[in-house]
Design a protein that fits this description.
This protein has two domains: 179 residues, Spore Coat Polysaccharide Biosynthesis Protein SpsA, Chain A (Alpha-Beta Complex); 94 residues, no CATH class. 42% of the residues lie in helices and 16% in strands. It is built from 13 helices and nine strands.
């Protein structure tokens, strides 16, 4: 029997979060049928029984290893029977009947291929989100904050204009509600991505099939569970994690081509001596020692070197998962004093 919605969650040591998430989902279901599919990226951790004890109706899929966000979701979607798919992060909670309302809304909006709700944090504060591809691309450039930088990036990457005020370029992967044919026609996430960037890249292909919309009268809670690839020590220089930016560069290469990719790589290489010279001049003015405070610059240089290691693989778009090695995760190594 075809269900209205297939809900797909990825488990990676997050059984407690998944249980809380599913409790919140079921609480507000009344008039639609669902199936729940959980894909476990580390079955050896032994959390399957904990979840099935609470929710015996769940369809549970185990992967051989941590295959990443996109591949795991694709495995779940291939097993799904719903008219609609809802991809949920394990660290999300719903607090009203948003799923049922999305079914009714999408039934009336054949022009929309996929949609999302607004993200709120645990304290019920709205979370910022990128409104377009260009809005996102602006953050890739290591430029000092200020009016000139803003003017330059706005000139290079203007915002798109849509007649539909709900329409956007892409949807955040934590909550994607889509028509089944969106998966059937695209085959889901690009499996070259391990983590980050896959929702942006897929949105580019989904957007060719229909509108992507955020409905601002709907929301979900995103707790943002910690993971070792999340960025830390954020500054205008060190604004990205290594895994995040490797994935972003793969997306740029795939969607915008070689020139856009080379422009970013050249920019990162050029900025290494620039950020060092800038800091050394300030150091001389403040205490006379040009080498006194260069930690941020060292971190940036180390991160950039990792990006350069993936240059040939990325520019040639060699198939295979773009997953950094533990030794390349500069955020974690720095936090532990390596």
């Amino acid at each position: 029997m075809e269900n209205d919605v297939s809900i797909i969650l990825i488990n990676y040591h997050t059984s407690g979060l998944i249980i809380d998430c599913l409790h919140s989902v079921i609480t507000f279901l009344h008039d639609i049928t669902i199936e729940v599919i959980i894909v476990d990226n580390d079955p050896q951790f032994g959390q399957k029984e904990l979840i099935l004890e609470k929710f015996p109706f769940v369809k549970y899929i185990t992967m051989d290893s941590n295959v990443g966000f996109g591949r795991a979701n694709n495995a779940g979607m291939r097993q799904a029977s719903g008219r609609y798919f809802l991809l949920l992060n394990s660290d999300t909670i719903v607090r009203d009947d948003v799923i049922e309302r999305f079914v009714r809304r999408m039934d009336k909006r054949p022009d929309v291929i996929a949609c999302g709700a607004m993200q709120y944090d645990a304290e019920d504060n709205p979370m910022n989100y990128y409104t377009s591809f260009n809005d996102f691309r602006k953050t890739f450039y290591i430029l000092p904050p200020g009016k000139f930088s803003t003017f330059l990036l706005d000139l290079l990457y203007p915002e798109p204009r849509y007649a539909d005020p709900d329409q956007h370029d892409w949807l955040v992967g934590a909550f994607i509600f889509l028509r089944r044919e969106g998966f059937d026609l695209t085959q889901g996430f690009d499996e070259d991505f391990f983590m980050y960037g896959e929702d942006v890249e897929w949105s580019g292909r989904l957007g060719k099939l229909g509108k992507l919309c955020y409905f601002k009268d709907s929301k979900f809670i995103h707790l943002e569970n910690k993971n070792p690839f999340r960025r830390s020590r954020i500054s205008w220089i060190n604004r990205f994690s290594v895994q995040m930016q490797v994935s972003n560069l793969v997306w740029i290469r795939k969607q915008y081509g070689i020139f856009a990719y080379l422009l970013l790589i050249f920019h990162y290489a050029l900025m290494i001596p620039v950020v060092y010279l800038w800091r050394m001049v300030i150091n001389v003015k403040e205490d006379g020692n040009p080498f006194s405070r260069l930690t941020t610059q060292h971190i940036y240089a180390r991160k950039s070197r990792v990006l350069f290691r993936y240059f040939w693989k990325t520019i040639l778009l060699r198939k295979g998962m773009y997953k950094i090695q533990p030794s390349e995760n500069i955020d974690i190594l720095t936090a532990h004093g390596a």
